[in-house]
Design goal:
Blueprint (H helix, E strand, L loop, with lengths): L3 E4 L2 E2 L5 H8 L8 E9 L4 E8 L1 H18 L15 E10 L3 H19 L3 E5 L10 H4 L3 H8 L22 E5 L4 E7 L4 H11 L9 E8 L4 E8 L7 H13 L5 E7 L4 H12 L10 H11 L1
Parallel strand pairs: 5-7, 6-7
Antiparallel strand pairs: 1-4, 1-5, 2-4, 2-5, 3-4, 8-10, 8-11, 9-10
Helix pairs in contact: 1-2, 2-3, 6-7
């Protein structure tokens, strides 16, 4: 059985098409590395790439793409709605087949050492790779974003990187690298330009605000669409279903007479996450994922 991992690197560039294509280029037509999807958002000013494949091939492609990002992106000039600490902001590894979470953690740490050695961009471990309890959550690492971190990292040992000297790269900042479970990036757009409404809802839906334990959320303005967005990460879709989150946001928005104007899923998503919500909205009794023809066929093919 071949070893497969998922990787969803996030780069701090969502507007310059030439830079976006240059970053994505190393992931194309590389043996053992499969480019599933990539999306650039100008409001977030962020590029999200979805990969799956063999660890070695993915890591080699990541180094090449990251080298381009470090050369082309200057965090001192970067502006966008999404929090970030680096040109290569985050690199998460997720076990898919033939590899355990613990092995994925070890792989992420080996890659982090290589990343710093070749690019001189310091690394902060997070999620399962974290070596400190106060850095398990990505938002803890990103506190204050690049602008604050580049100052405090020099003087506050509690903010020092896990790999590299206590200073950020002068233009590329730092990078968070870790191993984690599948994450669903789920956004809900609201029919209003009032950002305060989205901020209140985001606070109520996320774990830190007393909401769903497996949800992280923030408010984002979408000026080009004349809307605002509740942007969320569902860090464990099996414990917190998408439909529950959507219905909660819909219910809270109704307090201000605001309606939902569509949702977005960024990057790849496990079939089970979508099917769970589909069964809910279609009110299908006793539905099982192995009733889906393609999933059943894949299962039988793997058994053979």
């Amino acid at each position: 059985m071949s070893v497969l991992i998922e990787c969803v690197p996030n780069f701090s560039e969502g507007r310059r098409k030439d830079v976006i294509e240059a970053i994505v280029a190393p992931f194309r037509n590389r043996r053992g590395c499969y480019l599933f999807d990539y999306r650039a958002d100008p409001d977030h000013n962020r590029l999200v790439v979805s990969l799956c494949g063999e660890p070695g091939a993915i890591c080699d492609a990541l180094m090449e793409a990251s080298r381009t990002a470090v050369e082309k992106i200057d965090l001192n000039r970067h502006q966008g709605a999404h929090p970030r600490i680096g040109a290569v902001d985050v690199i998460p590894f997720t076990p898919v087949r033939g590899i355990t979470m613990d092995e994925c953690v070890e792989m992420s740490r080996r890659f982090a050492e290589r990343f710093y050695s070749e690019l001189k961009v310091p690394v902060f471990y997070y999620e399962a790779s974290a070596v400190r309890p106060d850095r398990t959550r990505l938002e803890q690492v990103r506190k204050g974003q690049y602008e604050e971190l580049k100052e405090v990292v020099r003087t506050d040992p509690s903010r020092a990187p896990d790999v590299g000297e206590p200073r950020l790269h002068p233009t590329a900042g730092g990078t968070a690298i870790g191993a984690r479970k599948f994450l669903v990036a789920f956004n809900v757009n609201l029919n209003t330009e009032n950002l305060e409404i989205a901020k209140i809802i985001a606070k109520r839906v996320r774990a830190s605000g007393g909401g769903f334990v497996c949800v992280k959320g923030m408010a984002v303005a979408l000026p080009e669409k004349h809307m605002v967005q509740v942007s969320m990460n569902l860090v464990d879709y099996e414990r917190t279903a998408m439909y529950r989150v959507l219905e909660f946001v819909r219910m809270e928005a109704a307090r201000w007479g605001v309606t939902v104007n569509g949702t977005e899923v960024y990057g790849m998503i496990p079939a089970a996450a979508m099917l769970d919500s589909a069964a809910y909205y279609m009110q299908i009794d006793d539905f099982h994922n192995d009733q889906v023809l393609e999933l059943k066929l894949l299962d039988l093919m793997q058994q053979d």
